[in-house]
Amino acid sequence: MLNSDTETKEKLKTENKIQKPKVVICHNDDYNTFPFVTECFIRICKMDKKTAKEKTLEVHYRGKSIVAEGSDEHLKKIKLCLRAEGLNVTIENA
């Protein structure tokens, strides 16, 4: 029984160390224009024009959209750049 408890605790520690995937989410606002947001997605998130327009519409109509996935370092750079442009973005668990 003691061995089982120890194994369970070790398994939980290992699971807690595994990072969950994260994403950058852009939230709707009332001041950035559609063309500006689309251009930011193309330039910063490296989206093609069609995808950037679709994501911009999703932000507008649904209130938010996932605009980037990847490593923590990559997401922090994307977030920083989008925020510098005045967009409301967060990093959240996928």
Summarize this, please?
The chain is α+β, with helices and mostly antiparallel strands. Helix content is 57%, strand content 20%. It has a domain at 31-94: Ribosomal protein L7/L12, C-terminal domain/Adaptor protein ClpS (Ribosomal Protein L30, Chain: A).
User: From the alpha-carbon coordinates, what is the Rg to the nearest angstrom?
Assistant: 18 Å
The number of strands is 3
Annotated CATH homologous superfamily of the domain at 31-94: Ribosomal protein L7/L12, C-terminal domain/Adaptor protein ClpS
Overall outline:
elongated
CATH class wording of the domain at 31-94: Alpha Beta
**Helix residue percentage:** 55-70%
Q: Uncertain segments of ≥5 residues (pLDDT<50)?
A: none
Structural class: alpha+beta
Q: Counting H and I runs of at least 4 residues, what is the number of helices?
A: 4
**Residue-averaged pLDDT, rounded?**
90
What does this structure look like?
This protein is 57% helix and 20% strand. Helix 2 packs across helix 3 (49-62). It has four helices and three strands. Strands 2-1-3 form a three-stranded antiparallel sheet. The two termini are 37 Å apart. 19% of the residues are buried. The protein is α+β, with helices and mostly antiparallel strands and 94 residues long. The model has no long low-confidence stretch (mean pLDDT 90). The protein has a domain at 31-94: 2-Layer Sandwich (Ribosomal Protein L30, Chain: A), CATH 3.30.1390.10. The longest helix is centred in the N-terminal third of the chain and has 16 residues, at 2-17. The radius of gyration is 18 Å and the shape is elongated.
